[in-house]
């Protein structure tokens, strides 16, 4: 998941390709930056993000069962409705389907789960969102969608610390536009002579603030 960080006015975030460059600048603590023939003493700080989350989401689509919704409310017994659903999906007009093993029907939620006897029989309904349902001389449209099994695995909380990114504080206000100042900061910290190195990303905010999102 993305972890947000609040970047305030007159601050900048610099992410370097090399972790050692960022750690070297952090150890220095303060740095004199050349901005348009002016010098500015800025503070280099590490920072900790809010708690992050890592997990794996496994989704398995059933080849034997489908979910059905928007089953019409009719004045017939529930077991009759189950029989109607079984017959309707046993002979699919759109192809596929087959012998039905079980029909689980919930009258209150107007939903049902159709389980076929043959594996793979449900695959033909994956792309079918509206399915014709003939009962009592009328045709209704059922919402059909795959039955899935969702598993959450390797759920972990981690402390968001970016070892390749530094926070610059105390950048003085200038008449130049935000983009120009950001370019000057980037040029300065890319030079090895200034203890810098190659920069992956940079974000400078001169007014207000911004939310910056970090990914692993």
UniProtKB/TrEMBL annotation:
* Gene Ontology process terms (BP): innate immune response; regulation of innate immune response
Q: What is its main location?
A: cytoplasm
Q: Which InterPro entries match?
A: Nmi/IFP35_dom (IPR009909), Nucleotide-bd_a/b_plait_sf (IPR012677)
Question: What species does this protein belong to?
Answer: Phalacrocorax carbo (Great cormorant)
Q: Where in the cell is it found?
A: Cytoplasm; Nucleus; Secreted
Please identify the protein, giving its name as recorded: N-myc-interactor
What Pfam families does this protein map onto?
A: NID (PF07292)
Q: Which residues form the NID domain?
A: 12-101, 112-200
Instruction: Give UniProt keywords alphabetically.
Output: Cytoplasm, Immunity, Innate immunity, Nucleus, Secreted
Q: Which Gene Ontology cellular-component terms appear in the entry?
A: cytoplasm; extracellular space; nucleus
Which family would the database say this protein is a member of?
A: Belongs to the NMI family.
């Amino acid at each position: 998941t993305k972890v947000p960080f609040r970047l305030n006015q007159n601050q900048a975030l610099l992410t370097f390709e090399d972790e050692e460059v960022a750690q070297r600048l952090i150890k220095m603590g303060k740095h004199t930056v050349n901005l348009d023939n002016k010098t500015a003493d800025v503070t280099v700080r590490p920072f900790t993000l809010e708690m992050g989350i890592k997990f794996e989401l496994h989704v398995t689509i059933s080849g034997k069962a489908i979910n059905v919704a928007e089953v019409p409310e009719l004045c017939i017994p529930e077991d009759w409705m189950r029989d109607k659903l079984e017959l309707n999906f046993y002979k699919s007009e759109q192809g596929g389907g087959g012998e039905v093993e079980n029909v689980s029907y919930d009258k209150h939620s107007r939903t049902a789960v159709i389980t076929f006897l043959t594996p793979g029989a449900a695959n033909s309904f994956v792309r079918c969102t509206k399915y014709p349902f003939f009962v009592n001389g009328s045709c209704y449209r059922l919402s059909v969608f795959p039955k899935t099994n969702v598993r959450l695995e390797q759920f972990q909380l981690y402390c968001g610390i970016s070892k390749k990114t530094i926070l610059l504080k105390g950048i003085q206000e200038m008449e130049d536009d935000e983009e120009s100042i950001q370019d000057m900061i980037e040029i300065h910290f890319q030079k090895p002579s200034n203890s810098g190195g190659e920069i992956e990303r940079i974000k400078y905010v001169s007014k207000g603030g911004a939310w910056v999102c970090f990914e692993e």
